[in-house]
Amino acid sequence: MELAWVGAAYGLGLLASRLGLPPLVGYLGAGFTLWGLGYQNSPLLEQIADVGVLLLLFTVGLKLRFASLVRLEVLGVGGLHLVLFGLLSGLIGLALGISPNAALFLGIGLAFSSTVLAVKLLDDRRELSTFHGRVAVGILVLQDLVAVGLLAYAGVKNPTPWALLLLALPLLRPVVGWILEKSGHDELLLLYGLGLALGGASLARHLGVSPELGALLIGAALAGHPQTSELSRTLWGLKEAFLVAFFLQIGLMGLPSPSALPLALVFILLLPLKAALFFVLFVLFGLRARTAFVTSVSLSSYSEFALITSVAAVEGGLLPESWSQLVGLVVAVSLALAAPLNRSVHNLFQRYERFLLRFERKGLHADDEPTSLGGAEWLVVGMGRTGGAAYKMLAGQGYRVLGLDADEGKLEFHRAKKRQVRYGDAEDPELWERIDLEGLRGVLLTLPDLEAKLRAARGLKQRGFSGVIAATSYHREEDPLLQEAGANLISRPFAEAGERLAERALGINPLEEAEDPRPTEAEPAKG
């Protein structure tokens, strides 16, 4: 049976990838295919899927900043959307003849967005730490907290009076951080991360709270620690492999009866309305159209919690048993539709930019980007390790340098070192359309994501910028794409690291003070 799971997931995942779709679409298809062949879910697959989800939320916790949860656009938009879309979905349920309690479960369950899908796709695009990534994760965490309360009301999870102790998990930071530093860099680090995720989940489960919330909170206890980036990378492969089981599980729930398919279609057709409602609320709360659009697409799916709440309603006799399969199909289709949309979200915004900008409110926005470089001669886009080193070298030569990054953590780090850095998203076409390039000698693109570097180079080229456009390249096949986009200088960090090592061995370039390890754009994008 295990061979059938792996074989079907790999085969259809590979097919989806060849068709330009995310592999997870293939994994969902593999689940339905296996169900059609008579395979059923098993305790082993369920346990693997659970561990995958726990690892995913643990790594989200490693990057979580609690300040991002209390932002107005998180609490305001997240709360209003939950009420409005939940009310709409619940009214549809009432119209179909289900009880008010069942309609409540169904409506709020469908108002949730998939944490697994959104976080995975944001992580794949290296956008978890960007402004829109933090807003999306904040809303997802808010929804998860509401889901815990909903499940407690249903009797699925009954929090004990000691459940509030989970909020004290971040106080364990000195202890878990000290052990993390002693865990080295190999399999002990992997085992420690796995143990933390499972331990936090087990504690939450014993306290009657969602284990996913426990994994997220124990990860948050380490947020900002210098070694969290390495821990996250170490867990990456294990997390991705185990998450395949989660998507297989959804397909193995099977298909509803043909008579229920029109109803499933109704809920699927609500997806554009769900995304549009997010977009309108984000704009009303003062975000730019681009941020509102990208974040809305990230949240445009139905959640795995919809499956959990529907099962709770079935077990409680509120809904017929067939509703579990119906909701399972609706969630699976929403994930399959949202995955390719998220992959091309920046292209979609560029295509419909003129239309979407009509909805943008005038005045200052929380995510405004610079239009003036303040007299800078060099612009470094991407202030991770490579960008930080480039900034330091240029500034040391007496040049006026400005750094841009969409990650607030990196900006705070460099500001503490008295460096001139500002918020800026390289994938935003508006940034390159509005920014004043006068007096600029060159732009260094030290971002991890190839697509972001291509967009930036094209934007500069379209503006007729004649200075140096330098970009990092992690694979030789990237070189012609960067050159075609407008880059006239390409650096290969991995190849040049050996040259620098030889220089230092010869005493040509003495070792300099190391930059903080948290900004890690020096690894190539996975996928």
Automatic annotation (TrEMBL):
Q: Which GO terms describe its molecular function?
A: antiporter activity
Tell me the ranges covered by the RCK N-terminal domain, including all copies: 379-492
Q: Where is the composition biased (Basic and acidic residues)?
A: 516-527
Topological relation to the membrane, as annotated = Multi-pass membrane protein
One biological process term from GO is:
potassium ion transport
Q: What is its main location?
A: membrane
Which SUPFAM superfamilies does this chain map to?
Answer: NAD(P)-binding Rossmann-fold domains
Q: Read off the Pfam families from this record.
A: Na_H_Exchanger, TrkA_N
Q: Name one GO cellular component term.
A: membrane
Q: Where in the cell is it found?
A: Membrane
Q: Could you tell me which residues belong to the region Disordered?
A: 507-527
Q: Which residues cross the membrane?
A: 44-62, 74-96, 102-123, 135-156, 162-180, 189-207, 263-285, 292-314, 326-345
Top-level taxon: Bacteria
Tell me where in this chain the Cation/H+ exchanger transmembrane domain is found.
13-339
Q: What are the alphabetically sorted keywords of the record?
A: Membrane, Transmembrane, Transmembrane helix, Transport
Q: Which family does it belong to?
A: Belongs to the monovalent cation:proton antiporter 2 (CPA2) transporter (TC 2.A.37) family.
Q: Could you tell me what this protein is called?
A: Glutathione-regulated potassium-efflux system protein KefC
Q: Which organism is it from?
A: Meiothermus taiwanensis
**Gene name per UniProt:** kefC
